[in-house]
Amino acid sequence: MSIRYSQDFKDSLVKLHQEGRSLKSLAEKFGPSKDSIAIWVKQATPIMIKGQSKTLKDVKQLEKREEVYLKA
């Protein structure tokens, strides 16, 4: 059974990592695996698309909206 973490919890760990905490220390202190935290960090890392800063999470949300729009 997998544990579902709230978006606020994920965001707080991402912020701590961006402030210099290691994935290992975050995993040991808060519980999620290093791999899970690494995925959350990757999803929150900005990328440039056509001159605009977007996160992987933003791109995936746009793709889902487009799929729903195209199916309608």
List the helices and strands and how they pair.
Elements (H helix, E strand, L loop, with lengths): L6 H12 L4 H8 L3 H11 L1 E4 L2 E4 H16 L1
Antiparallel strand pairs: 1-2
Catalogue the unreliable spans.
none
Q: What's the mean pLDDT score?
A: 89
Rg on CA atoms, Å: 15 Å
Strand order of the largest sheet: 1-2
Globally, the shape reads flat
Biggest sheet overview: 2 strands, antiparallel
Beta-strand proportion: 5-15%
DSSP helix count?
4
Order of helices and strands: HHHEEH
The count of β-strands is 2
Derived structural class = mainly alpha
Q: Kindly, what is the distance between the CA atoms of the first and last residues, rounded to a whole number of angstroms?
A: 34 Å
Summarize the amount of helix as a percent range. 55-70%
Can you tell me about this structure?
The protein is mainly α and 72 residues long. The chain has a two-stranded antiparallel ribbon. The radius of gyration is 15 Å and the shape is flat. Strand 1 and strand 2 (52-55) form a beta hairpin. The protein has four helices and two strands, in the order H-H-H-E-E-H.
Keywords:
72 residues, mainly alpha, two-stranded antiparallel ribbon, 65% helix
Entry summary:
The chain is mainly alpha-helical.
